[in-house]
C-alpha cells in the first residue's frame, strides 16, 4: 500500500501526453488538461484507431524479445505518469533493458514533441527498472516504419524543462492567450480555441466609446 507522502506525490503527477501537447501548443495543453476540453477531427480519430489496434494490452514475444503493451509508467523525479504503447524487453535474465516504442499517426514532424514524449517514457522506465535506457523508437503509420530516437543529453534536458513548464502551468491553472499560426488548422480544438478571433482581444473601453458615440 502506498505511503501517505507517495500517495500525495502520485496525485501531483501530470500526464506524459501533456508534454507532447505543450510543445505543439501551450494553449492546447491548457485547454485539454486545465479546462478539460476535447474535440475530435479526422486526424485524432485516425490516431485513436491506430492506438486501439496497437494497445491490446497483451504481452507477446517475437525473436526473443518480449513486448509489454499499454504499460503503466511513472516518474516521481519528473512528476509525470502515463502508459507506454509498447515496451520491448531486450536481453536476458537480470540484464533486461526496456526499449519504448510509441505509435504515431502520420509521418515524422519538424518539431520535437513526439521525441520528448518518447524520452519522457524512457526516463520513467529508467526510474522504474533502475537501468539506463539509451534509445527507443517512434513508429509512424505513413512511412510504416520505425524512426530510432537516441536519448542524448539535449533531448533529456528538453524533456525535463518541458515537464517543469507543464507542471508550473497546470499548478497556476491559467490558460495562455491564443497565438494563431498555420498549425492551428490541424488542431482539433481550433473551434474551441478560436485563435484568429481571440489572438487580439477586443478592448472593452474602446468598444464602450464606439457604442456611446453611436
TrEMBL record:
Keywords assigned: Antiviral defense, Exonuclease, Hydrolase, Iron, Iron-sulfur, Manganese, Metal-binding, Nuclease
Pfam families (UniProt xref): Cas_Cas4
Enzyme Commission numbers on file: 3.1.12.1
Keyword Iron-sulfur: yes
Cofactor(s) listed: Mg(2+); Mn(2+); iron-sulfur cluster; [4Fe-4S] cluster
Position of the signal peptide: none
InterPro entries the UniProt entry points to: Cas4_exonuclease (IPR051827), CRISPR-assoc_prot_Cas4 (IPR013343), Dna2/Cas4_DUF83 (IPR022765), PDDEXK-like_dom_sf (IPR011604)
Cofactor binding description: Mg(2+) or Mn(2+) required for ssDNA cleavage activity.
Ranges for domain DUF83: 17-194
Family: Belongs to the CRISPR-associated exonuclease Cas4 family.
Stated role: CRISPR (clustered regularly interspaced short palindromic repeat) is an adaptive immune system that provides protection against mobile genetic elements (viruses, transposable elements and conjugative plasmids). CRISPR clusters contain sequences complementary to antecedent mobile elements and target invading nucleic acids. CRISPR clusters are transcribed and processed into CRISPR RNA (crRNA).
Stated name of the protein: CRISPR-associated exonuclease Cas4
Amino acid at each position: 500500500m502506498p505511503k501517505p507522502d507517495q500517495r500525495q506525490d502520485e496525485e501531483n503527477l501530470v500526464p506524459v501526453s501533456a508534454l507532447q501537447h505543450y510543445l505543439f501548443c501551450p494553449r492546447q495543453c491548457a485547454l485539454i488538461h486545465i479546462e478539460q476540453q476535447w474535440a475530435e477531427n479526422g486526424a485524432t480519430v485516425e490516431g485513436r484507431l491506430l492506438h486501439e489496434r496497437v494497445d491490446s494490452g497483451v504481452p507477446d514475444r517475437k525473436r526473443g524479445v518480449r513486448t509489454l503493451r499499454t504499460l503503466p509508467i511513472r516518474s516521481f523525479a519528473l512528476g509525470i505518469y502515463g502508459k507506454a504503447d509498447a515496451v520491448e524487453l531486450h536481453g536476458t535474465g537480470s540484464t533486461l533493458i526496456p526499449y519504448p516504442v510509441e505509435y504515431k499517426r502520420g509521418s515524422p514532424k519538424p518539431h520535437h514533441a513526439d521525441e520528448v514524449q518518447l524520452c519522457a517514457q524512457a526516463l520513467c522506465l529508467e526510474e522504474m527498472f533502475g537501468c539506463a535506457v539509451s534509445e527507443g523508437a517512434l513508429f509512424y503509420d505513413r512511412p510504416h516504419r520505425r524512426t530510432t530516437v537516441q536519448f542524448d543529453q539535449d533531448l533529456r534536458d528538453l524533456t525535463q524543462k518541458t515537464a517543469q513548464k507543464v507542471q508550473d502551468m497546470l499548478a497556476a491553472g491559467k490558460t495562455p492567450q491564443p497565438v494563431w499560426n498555420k498549425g492551428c488548422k490541424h488542431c482539433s480544438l481550433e473551434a474551441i480555441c478560436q485563435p484568429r478571433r481571440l489572438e487580439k482581444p477586443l478592448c472593452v473601453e474602446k468598444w464602450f466609446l464606439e457604442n456611446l458615440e453611436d
